[in-house]
Amino acid sequence: MTCKRCRSDSHSVFNGETAIHFLGLKGLDKPIVWVFSKLAVCLECGFTEFTIPERELSVLATGEAVAGAVVLDKKVARSLAA
Ligand SMILES: [Zn+2]
Description:
Blueprint lengths: L10 E10 L11 E11 L5 E2 L4 H9 L8 E2 L1 H8 L1
Antiparallel strand pairs: 1-2, 2-3, 2-4
Bound molecules: zinc ion.
Zinc ion binds next to loops.
């Protein structure tokens, strides 16, 4: 595999845990989505690629939590705290 950023062939694959947040103040009311994917990391420049599974991708597309996705949904967290 050749790096799309620096054209290096020096890369490795790692297990990753990534928390994805929506941007801006409106993002504070949207779920935080955890993705557990393989990360392909360029060892020269740090450029990293990974694929978001379909279920977690639907949370990012809609801003709404779905069953089975690992998310922190503040609407749910607030209702559980009450
Ligand atoms: Zn690179």
